[in-house]
Design a protein that fits this description.
This protein is of the alpha+beta class. Helix content is about 45%, strand content about 20%. The relative contact order is 0.17.
Length: about 300
C-alpha cells in the first residue's frame, strides 16, 4: 500500500526580502496509483504571480493523473501498449488544465495597479499573461508494477530501490536555446518536457524536489545519501516529519537560499520489509563519507 508526504518552506532570501514562497508541493494516493508533485515558481519580475502559478501547476498535475486513472485497469493496458504516447497525452492535458486555472485566476483577480507599477507601460503590455504565472513542474507516479514521470524546468527526482541503491532517474539537463525558458508558461512548453518510465523494478520510494534542495548539498552523492536517510525513516513518519521540516528550514539558508519543496511517495510494506537493508546502507554511506573526509584532511 502506498503512502506519502509533501512539504514546502520559504527560502532565506525570500524571508529577507519579504517575498512569498513561490514553491508548491502535493501528493495523492489513489486507486492503482500514487503521485508526488512539486513546482517552483520563477523569481523574475515578470513572473509576479508565480506563487499562484506553481500551486495551479501542482493542482493540475494531481487532477490530471486522477482523471487518467478513473479506470486503473484501462490505464495499465494503455501504458503497456504505448507508454511514450500516454505520458505525452498526460503532459498536454496538464498544460491545458494549468492554462485554464491561471486564466480563471486572472479573470477573478485582474492585475492590480501595484503589480503594473513594477514595469514601464510599454514593457508591461508585451508580457504574455501566462508569464505572470511562470513555473516549473515535476511529477512522478507509482503504479502497479511500473513508475513514470515528467518534468519541465529544473529540480530533481530521486528513486530509492529495495536494495538501498539511489538514482536520479530523471536528471534534467537544460538543452534549450539561449533566452528560452523551460517553463509551463512558454508557448512551446509541450515540447520542453522530459519524461521517464521504469518497469519491473521494486521501488521503495521516490522523492521529487525543487532545486532549492539540491543546491543545499555539496555533491550529488551527498544529495543521494540524504534520500537514503529519508527512506530509512518511512516506517516512523510521525516522529520523522518534524525533524525533516526543521532540516528543510536549515537547508533553505544554504545554497541559493531558495524556497525548498519535497514530495515523496513510498511503498509502506516494502519500507518495513527492507528497513534493515536501508539502515545498513545509511551506515555504509556514513562510513564512506567519514573516510572521504579523513582522506581530504590528510592532504
Amino acid at each position: 500500500m502506498f503512502n506519502g508526504f509533501s512539504h514546502s518552506v520559504k527560502g532565506a532570501s525570500h524571508e529577507k526580502r519579504n517575498i512569498v514562497c513561490q514553491d508548491a508541493s502535493a501528493y495523492k494516493i489513489g486507486e492503482g496509483y500514487a503521485v508526488a508533485v512539486v513546482a517552483d515558481g520563477h523569481g523574475s519580475k515578470k513572473h509576479f504571480r508565480s506563487d499562484v502559478g506553481s500551486k495551479c501547476a501542482v493542482d493540475a498535475a494531481v487532477e490530471t493523473i486522477g482523471l487518467f486513472f478513473q479506470d486503473p485497469d484501462e490505464f495499465d493496458r494503455n501504458f503497456d501498449r504505448d507508454p511514450d504516447r500516454l505520458i505525452k497525452r498526460i503532459e498536454k492535458y496538464v498544460l491545458i488544465l494549468w492554462n485554464e486555472k491561471i486564466r480563471k485566476h486572472l479573470e477573478e483577480n485582474p492585475v492590480t495597479l501595484d503589480e503594473k507599477h513594477l514595469f514601464e507601460h510599454n514593457v508591461f503590455i508585451e508580457i504574455p499573461h501566462a508569464s505572470y504565472y511562470g513555473t516549473t513542474l515535476i511529477c512522478a507516479v507509482a503504479c502497479r508494477g511500473y513508475t513514470f514521470g515528467f518534468q519541465i524546468g529544473d529540480g530533481s527526482l530521486v528513486a530509492v530501490f529495495e536494495d538501498g541503491e539511489t538514482s536520479m532517474i530523471m536528471d534534467y539537463e537544460e538543452a534549450n536555446p539561449a533566452n528560452i525558458t523551460s517553463s509551463m508558461c512558454n508557448e512551446m512548453a509541450v515540447t520542453m518536457f522530459d519524461q521517464f518510465y521504469v518497469r519491473n523494478k521494486k521501488l521503495l520510494c521516490f522523492c521529487v524536489s525543487t532545486d532549492g534542495l539540491y543546491t543545499s548539498f555539496g555533491s550529488d552523492q551527498d544529495f543521494l545519501d540524504y534520500h537514503t536517510i529519508i527512506a530509512s525513516q518511512l516506517t516512523n513518519m510521525e516522529a520523522f516529519m518534524p525533524s525533516l521540516k526543521n532540516n528543510m528550514v536549515k537547508r533553505s539558508h544554504f545554497g541559493t537560499e531558495d524556497d525548498i519543496s519535497i514530495s515523496c511517495v513510498y511503498d509502506e510494506e516494502l519500507a518495513a520489509e527492507k528497513l534493515d537493508v536501508i539502515k545498513a546502507k545509511v551506515a555504509e554511506n556514513k562510513r564512506r563519507a567519514a573516510e572521504k573526509k579523513a582522506n581530504l584532511l590528510k592532504r
